[in-house]
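step: validate -> pass
step: tokenize input -> pass
step: predict -> running
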Amino acid sequence: MKLSVQFASHIRQVYFGGNWTASSLKEITEELSLKEATTRIENLNTIAVLVYHLHYYLRIQLKVLQGAPLKGSDAESFKATPFNTEREWQDFMKQIFKEAEQFADLIENLPENRWQESFTDDKYGSYFRNIQGFLEHTHYHLGQLVILRKMIANKTDI
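step: predict -> pass
step: emit ->
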């Protein structure tokens, strides 16, 4: 199987389900209210902030695959837009899943010779390194999201 197809499959699985970790962003955030998503547990990031953080990196890489320059900063990746209504939160989640599918489609159609090329600049490493890192980063935060979701479910004053 081509590397492009494998990576696209992994991206779809981490966002929509069916991976070996039995965890996906869709499953974790399904039926998650804005109140739950913005509930702070001690000094930890909220679910909304972590979801924003994940989406920040997806958008950066999506734009590169669409031909734009690489623009982003780690400092900006946690500066989540405040959600004022349930509708804003739900619309944001719809946007994430739409862009995740676009991202997977672009990865799936990436020429096989591109994987070893620089991801816009040598200092960022190859396409392979960036997409693999994106998946690892997403799985890392999925674990945090699962734990936060359980902690919020056990909190009685929400």
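step: describe -> DSSP finds six helices and no strands in the chain.
step: cleanup -> pass
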